[in-house]
Every structure is written in structure tokens, then in C-alpha cells.
Amino acid sequence: MSLPSAPVLQALKKSASTMANRNTPFVYNEWYVAAFGSEVTRELLPRTLLDKRVVLFRTEGGEPVALSDRCAHRAYPLSLGALEGDTLVCGYHGFRFNTEGDCIEVPSAAKCPKGIGVARYAVLERGPLVWIWMGDPDQADESRLPEQEWLSAPDWEKSSGYFDLQSNYVSMHENLLDLTHLSYLHANTFGTPDYARAAFKSEVGDGHFVLYRDVVPTTLPPLWAKPTGLEGCTTAARIVKSEFKSPAFHQVSVRFYDNALPEEQRTVSQIRTAHILTPQTHSTCHYFIVHGRDFGQDDDSITQFMHENLFEAFNEDVDGMAALEQVWQTTDPDEMYEFSVGADGPSVAMRRYLKQRADNEGAARDTAHAAAPRVVPIRGTETA
User: Fold this and answer.
1) Which bin fits 101, alpha (ψ -120 to 50), beta or left (φ > 0)?
2) CA 189, CA 187: separation in Å to the nearest integer?
3) d(Cα 213, Cα 223) in Å, to the nearest integer?
4) 354 in helix, strand or coil?
5) Can you list the positions of beta strands (E) in the chain?
6) What are phi and psi of 350, to 5 degrees?
């Protein structure tokens, strides 16, 4: 039985301790997607994001708003209240809050107390997505949004969808960063046997991790062959770039063409998929997907064909990650270990990056807490 020896097991556990996993605290100082823009309306939308309860809605002017989903009075969910104009009325005792989260009326009091309110989160609407900043509001810098211009570009045909992922977001990012699994997890959809053995190279930067894989020559699966006109072509090229762009955003870009043709004669078809991950809890995740292509713009049948088949494949990821999550939840930590191989280079670097970000934020919070003024009770008011 070839179980790792004690020294090897110790080394594996030491390495694992430097990498994020399902138990690692969230990175809050980052933009995450709260919802598709189409989901945010005049109806109150409750959502759990990074273990925090949030309620989303639009003002009468159409601006998205995100507030903490609990009344400052008795913690009743504000999402069970009602919108009246641009104020949110709690459905328990009628406390009224404006879009800044300030309490502006208490029905049972002649005068509304000052300084009572709920957290308001910064939001940005870009293309089809509403982004939210759950961390330090002073650090909510728009320039930190990941590049995503194609999501709004008119020359890219797009479709979108959502999965309630029963897995932690770290495992899903790792799944997306090493697409070796296409040959196995997706053997029945858009994987091919040659994919896992194709040449690859990686790029590791500060918060940006990329794996390139050139599958050439290959025979494309029907999902890609049919819409690109490469059916029956045994000399096709499948040039893939899979990149972690932020803790919330992963993008896969692929080019297809007939590699047997001279470069100047090739018709190159491109697709891009935004895999957007917002942790709900440490074991569940909001998984938003936007898929785009730069060909067949006026053919709705291509959109339908690709969407149906792609989301069948993505569902295989969802099922696979849920199965992996169950292993993590039911295995004794002392018995859990992981080996890494060459193709894991970017994903290992990514997990170390997330761990370091989480550790740094935790240290900063501890420092701020230690520096905060200490409240000393007035003599005679102490309770036993």
C-alpha cells in the first residue's frame, strides 16, 4: 500500500497550511458580484454574500442599493418589509430607512433617534452585473474591478446563467484554473481525450494567475465544431487561456481554427466565458456565468445550441465540486492530504495568494480592534 510516509505526509500538510481552502476566512476587500442587473428591481431581493445578509433593490431612479438585511431595532429581516418611494420600511415595527441605511422614522417615537442605522454597501453596475464591496468602505476603489469590457461590447453575442454551487469558492477557482479535468469530468460534453496531455505553460503574477493550453491538432467536440464550421476537421486548433483575475472573477478564452490552413487563410472563432464566484458561506457559492462569442452574431440557433450544451457541461462542474465538498466535510482532517503536480502551479500560487490576502486582512482587523478606544463603564452602572 503506497500511502505517503510520515515525513512526506508532514511535508504535504506543511505545504497545505500555506494555501487557502474551504476554511480560510473570506477576502472582504474585493469587488464581488451580488446579482445580475436584471435580478435587482423594485422588489426586495435577499441574498447571503460572504456570510453576511444583504437586501438589494433599486431606487425609483433605477440605482441599485445594497443594505444589511436586518433592522437596527430587533434584527428583523428588512427584506420582509416594503419599499415606499426610496425608503425601506421594516415589516416588524415600521422603522424606516433611507438608501444610505440611516433610520429616518420610528412610528412609536415622536422624534427619530439619531445615529441609528444599518450598513450600506458600495455597489457598481457594469454591463449585466451588479458588483458589491463587502469590506472596508474606504478601500472601495472602482479601479480594482477586473477588466470585463467584452461583457458590454455589442460585437460579442452573449448568454448567461446561474448555479447555486454547493461547494466552497476556492475549490471552484482551482477547478477553473487547471482544465486538465476536461478529459475526464467533461468526457461526455466538451472534453476530448487529448486535452489533458496537451502542452501547457503558466504565468504567475501578483493576483493574476494564468494557464495556457494549446490542443493542436485535435478534433473538436460537437459543441465547438458545429457552430465554428469545423465539423469533421481533424486538424483543428483549440487554443485556451484560463485566468484567475480576482477572487471573484475567472475568465476562460478560447480560439478555434483549422491549423492545416496558412495563417492568412484561417477563420478564427473566439469564445469567452466569465466564471463569477461569490461565496455565500464557506461551503456554498453563488456561481454566475456569462458566455460570449464573436461569430454567428445574428444566428439565434447558435446561441441556443451553445447555451444548452455549455450549461450541461457546467452542471458537471457543479456536481463534481459538490462531491469534492462532501469529501472535505466528511474526512478527518488528520487523514486529509493533497499532492500537487506541474499543472497545479498556477492554482497552488492562487491558493497561497488568497491565504495571504485573508491573513493580511485578519491582521489589519486585529490591529484596528486593539487600537480602538476602550469603553470604560461609569461607576455604578456595571452589571454582575
Assistant:
1) left
2) 6
3) 19
4) helix
5) 31-36, 45-49, 52-58, 64-68, 82-84, 87-89, 96-97, 103-105, 120-126, 129-133, 157-165, 199-204, 209-218, 236-246, 249-258, 269-279, 285-293
6) -60, -45
For 164, the grid coordinates are 447555486
Q: Cell numbers of 39, please? A: 435580478
Q: C-alpha grid cell for residue 42?
A: 423594485
For residue 354, the number of C-alpha atoms closer than 13 Å in the C-beta half-sphere is 27
How far is it, in rounded angstroms, from Cα 283 to Cα 326?
Answer: 9
Between CA 360 and CA 24 the distance in angstroms is 12
Grid coordinates of 71: 433592522
Cis peptide before 217 (omega within 30 of 0): yes
Cell numbers 481554427 correspond to: 257
- Cα-trace Rg, the chain: 24
Listed residue (152, 158, 148) closest to 271, CA to CA:
158
CA 85 to chain centre: 32
Q: Which amino acid is at 81?
A: G
Alpha-carbon gap, residue 228 to 226, rounded angstroms: 6
Is residue 66 helix, strand or coil? strand
Closest CA to 341 of 170, 168, 174: 174
Residue 110 CB: number of other CB atoms within 10 A? 5
Q: Is 367 exposed, middle or buried (0-12, 13-18, 19+ CB in 10 A)?
A: exposed
In a 13 Å sphere around the CA of 98, the CA atoms on its Cβ side amount to: 8
Look up residue 117 and give its DSSP letter. B
Quick check: helix, strand or coil at residue 81? coil
Each residue's pLDDT, cut to its tens digit, for the chain (384 residues) gives 677 888 888 888 888 999 999 999 999 999 999 999 999 999 999 999 999 999 999 999 999 999 999 999 999 999 999 999 999 999 999 999 999 999 999 999 989 988 899 999 999 999 999 999 999 999 999 999 999 999 999 999 999 999 999 999 999 999 999 899 999 999 999 999 999 999 999 999 889 999 999 999 999 999 999 999 999 999 999 999 999 999 999 999 999 999 999 999 999 999 999 999 999 999 999 999 999 999 999 899 999 999 999 999 999 999 999 999 999 999 998 888 898 998 899 999 999 999 999 999 999 988 887 877 765 554 444 443
